Amino acid sequence: MELRHLRYFCVVAEELNLTRAAAKLHMAQPPLSRQIKQLESEIGAELFERSARGLRLTPAGQFFHEHTLQILEKIDTTVAAAQRMARSKRVMFGIGFVPSVFYGQLPLLVRELRQKDNVELVLAELTTVQQVKALKSGRIDMGFGRMRIDDPDVEQENLFDEPLMAALPEGHPLADTTPTLAQLAEYPLVLFPAQPRPSLADIMLGLFRRRGLKVTVAQEANELQTALGLVASDLGITLVPEQVKRVRRDGIVYVYLADPGLTSPVICSRRKGEAPSPIMQEANAILEVLVENRRSGRYP
């Protein structure tokens, strides 16, 4: 399947008439008709209903059209960005992150890098496992997560250990306390992210299991905001890193835990053995200052 086949299909889907579509594409009708039939054969589904009155999209055709438009729009946007970079001589720098690290220092790093005239910053929300793959493929240059991953091509730096807090529904019996894990284990748990794993969800479960505590998982969510919404709906409680308390949400109370040693690491991943580019050197310098501010208490 070639890109031109997708563009041909979209024009035919918009016109619902092969003659008009061929004219719009500046080509003859018979080859266009053959291209569409080849596309249907490759997909293994009819995309159009053909009748004397003309063409009509099948349900499969409607689905394919909707997603093909998104693909072509993404391609056009990417090509335009690449052309801008070529003209401006900007360097692309990719950062991957898990959502729970985006409420503290990371936005400040992003803001600083965005002010550099020679940098085209690309952000990607990825789990730590996905970040490792993206680093090895060159999709990103730096990743921020919470999981230790053993990979010979990736080096990981523990920036700091962040205290965990309990997110409770407003009015919860433990809302005005400093609860232990044993106390929290008595209540249903909202787990996130559900997929892909391993993730922060496994860190949470591990904390309970290592203490011989059994928990009841009431609900799993893929997104942090969804998990907080479930807690606010009184479906259960959850554990979150300290910086998440910056998310002000009605119906949620954040409390510190009785054991201050219950923490989650913030880990920076980079490609191992690679000489740092000038942009990476700048990013590392900015990050060093931000982490020192965090460790010294100048920024929570």
UniProtKB/TrEMBL annotation:
InterPro entries: LysR_HTH_N (IPR000847), LysR_subst-bd (IPR005119), WH-like_DNA-bd_sf (IPR036388), WH_DNA-bd_sf (IPR036390). The keyword Transcription regulation applies. Residues 1-58 form the HTH lysR-type domain. Signal peptide: none annotated. Pfam families: HTH_1, LysR_substrate. PANTHER family: LYSR FAMILY TRANSCRIPTIONAL REGULATOR (PTHR30346:SF17), TRANSCRIPTIONAL DUAL REGULATOR HCAR-RELATED (PTHR30346). Belongs to the LysR transcriptional regulatory family. This is LysR family transcriptional regulator. It comes from Billgrantia bachuensis.
